[in-house]
Queue: 4 jobs
Job 1
Amino acid sequence: KTPANALVLPFIAKLYPHARYVVLTRHPAAIWSSYANSFFDGDYVAARKFNPILNRYVPAMARFLRDAPVPLVRVSYETLVQRPEDEMRRVFAFLDLPFEAGTIDYGQHAHETKGLGDPLGVQQHSRPVTDSVEKWAHELAADPAKLAMVRDMVGRSITEYYPGRT
């Protein structure tokens, strides 16, 4: 779930070649919106100056998924929050573990609340919700400057992933 891990995936795969990997993906514009709003109070310019995560992490993640150097299952964030039981059953099957329904109702269990993730939304819910699935699209539709910045970053990511394409 930590985007920065994308930069070290080849190392992690070499370190743990027999591990099974659960790779959570999300629409790039949704990642960016969440990042900028969670850590930069919605200031896309400041967020990009600090770390242009789409340009750095999306191509690295795409290479890892394309090359699949280790056993992996890709889980789409959007599908996970819309159909959590189906997706978690698929993950548990991939891991060759019995399904545990309690993983969907994560807020019903004691767990560590500190971490590197989203400081705003993670504590608001006790199970997956669809609130943020299209939130980013509405934000970008309402702000042409933000939309232009995301288009530029995604375009640069595609050029990185598919050299020679425009």
Job 2
Amino acid sequence: FCGRRFCHYNTKALKSTKNMKPKLYIVSTPIGNYEDITLRALRVLKECDFIICEELKEARRLLSHYKIEKELFPLNEHNENESANELILKLLKGKTAALISDCGTPLFSDPGHLLVDLALQNRIDVIPVPGASSLLTALVGGALDFEKFYYYGWLSPKKDIRRKQLLDLRKRRETIVLMDTPYRLKTLLEDIVKLLGPNIPCVLAFELTKEKEKFYRGNAQNILSAVERENLKGEFVLLIKN
């Protein structure tokens, strides 16, 4: 592996077809409801030479639903450093590939940044194919003012660091967007109640686009009580309004 300083390859020697310019499509897929995919995304997935996915199992389930059969290459936090260069070599032979994550828009808290960096460094076209995003879905459905918002994403799983991060977020005046794993939802809300106050306005966007989709609106204490009462465990986006 060549590291983040990037590798340059002899593109003339690698391309098998002179007129084929390699392309890497960044394809958004549904965040839960399989109907939330664009016609363009389906076309790209059907026409590309191969698909780069986060996890094989999730990708196979998705593609099977749309009756798409493609060669799959996993790219995740465990193998990105080793696999990125191999994938670039495949692209430089004049191939086209689609990068997908397990759900939603790739690169948001997902692997793939190194692959994109290498592609750009080697003059491979990187083409986004927009679509579903839990971030925008939560903001639109949350009914908070988000003319300006601050996407913080995932807090640290370490208790002391997470609490320091929350204290730092008290200084911001935009709507704040947080994400975390389903099993840390209750802990996250408990920390928010303690550090930011029980009355801070919040919206919990829970299981977006799925059958159990629900928006819990109110303050941090109200929402924590609902989480405890209903024993909520699932994918979520949490909005905070300072």
Job 3
Amino acid sequence: SSNNETKVVCEERENFTYNVKIVENVLKIECMEDELWYKNAINFNFKPQLISVYLSQNNFENLSITSTTGDIKIPHDFTFKNSDLNLTTGDVDFRANVLNSAKFETTTGNIKLSNFTSNKLDAKCTTGKIEMSNVKINEDTNLELTTGDIVLNNFESSSYNSKSTTGDVIFKETIIKNHLEVETTTGSVVFKNSDANTLNIKTTTGSVKGNLLTSKIFVVNTVNGKVRVPDSISGGICKVSTTTGSVSLKINK
């Protein structure tokens, strides 16, 4: 496609109608399934649906996508003021930049952010994995996950808050300038060459382990878990609460 051409390409698919229109300077693409066609069908052969959008410019005000079934891929050479992606079943692979606020929500599917920057980030996933690499958030990061892992690699944010039920939370080369808050039930919380000014970590059966970069004052509350943390009288507060999980944290020297 030409860089000066804006067009929408949809794979031809029987019994589906595509409606492409511009409403108040917003490009809207709708896919509507013909009613009742399946009642007379003998064999079901559902082929993945592909919609490709070619745009003649790179900078946009807002990106808003709502999808029931299907993956969403946004390449790195786009910049949006705000983004709001909502999927029922499908993965998100997002590599563009968002200047102000980025929101991602999936029911069943993974959320992957790569080489990504934004002021604020909110991501919510029911069943799947939240994975980020080379990501910088200037202000707040809020993550919510029911079943699945959270893996951050080379991640930076002013503040961080995540709540999850089943799955690990792993920080690799991650720096949180202010406060880090993690709450999980059965998953472990792992730090690999990562740090925050202050930390508050709550688990039920999951362990808390790894290495931080600067001295902390450790406050650990556990019922049956083993505790191994350095004796320190300086640094920010690192509070860890767990029921049966072990706590093993070190400070890089």
Job 4
Amino acid sequence: SLLWFQQHAVPTCRLVAMGQGGRWSGQSWGVIVTEEIAQTIDLRRIYLDSPEKLRNRSWRLDILKALALVVTSMHRQGYIHNDLQWRNVLVTIEAAPKAFLIDCPSGRRIYLLGNRRGIVRDLAFLDKIAKIALSRADRLRFYKTYMGVDRLRERDKKEIRRILSFLKR
């Protein structure tokens, strides 16, 4: 997944080394080594340890926009993260923050344009903490930036309902 991210300009850690081995106790194994992205922290850690960052409106809106654009880029290129949670999003703690996706062992290419389940899953998992940490207006702003629209259309509203109900199943 990291190689795919790098090839398609999706911000992530630079892969330094990787390897995989055969079976051991019935399990195959693999290892990856990535380069550190300086001055970053995952969004979940910010929510838990530095909630004042999320109260800073300017920073919060900038990081939501940056994250929406990264996720849009990934999805439009036909890739699903499959574990897109706040803990797997690194952000820089600066005035103009950047977002990076990490930890994607079960990510995959989607080949059918109509395959929306993986996209809905990614967005629902991002919303898991967002619904606690952010206002509805912020979450809506994220979605509108993700979709590249100023106003919601009927199909957007239907998609939002699918996202909100996904984790209730």
